[in-house]
Amino acid sequence: MNLPLDYKKGFKNFLNVKIELSKKPFIPREETEFWVEAAIRELKKEKKKTHCLDLFSGSGCVGIAILKNIKNSYCDFADVNRKTLEQIKINLEINNIENKRARLIKTDIFSNIKRKYDYILANPPYVAKERLPELELQVKLYEPKIAWYGRQQGMFYIEKFLKKAKSFLRKNGKIFFEFDPEQKHKIGEIFKREGYKKFKFFKDQFKKWRFAKIEY
Ligand SMILES: C[S@@+](CC[C@H](N)C(=O)[O-])C[C@H]1O[C@@H](n2cnc3c(N)ncnc32)[C@H](O)[C@@H]1O
Q: Where do the Methyltransferase small domain residues begin and end (predicted)?
């Protein structure tokens, strides 16, 4: 089994942003581009300065696409894996992002997050244990397991994320996050249990349920 082409090439284009992959982070996917574009459309309507959190940030593709497209925006990048933070540093430099607009945080989900945000954007690890047999061998062999494996039903991180996320949102804040189509029902139950009232599910470009937006 060969190294993924994107690792061989060493970079990936994500919404016209160059994302370098030398530290072998999770390779940005087109399904993610699709919802980040939707988030950017909303951010463009904001009148004031916006503070974003790119949680589970990996290569940094989500937050860097936002910083490149939204003038008056700031982004904190948060990930548990030190190597991804090194990768984000490289990608911020390549894309000429001013230092003051970005911060890197090593954290276990929200453990080291100390402030509230206008937007939280998250692509957590969500591949279910039960679906491991169908997972592409190339992903299993080459992309870091910590980046994609979501344990039972793939819900381990999504559940922990949703328990805490609302307490890190500013008034009128928004959350965009990605999931596997099979998780939609369970996520709906968590929304109810955790008291999220204003939320909507969306499909991706392949007509599969893929992301949710929460307003708080
Ligand atoms: C699916 S990747 C997403 C990467 C990138 N945001 C993207 O969309 O391409 C998930 C990321 O979550 C990180 N991660 C895994 N467990 C974590 C935890 N407990 N706290 C914070 N980040 C975690 C992984 O290191 C990985 O970079």
A: 41-130
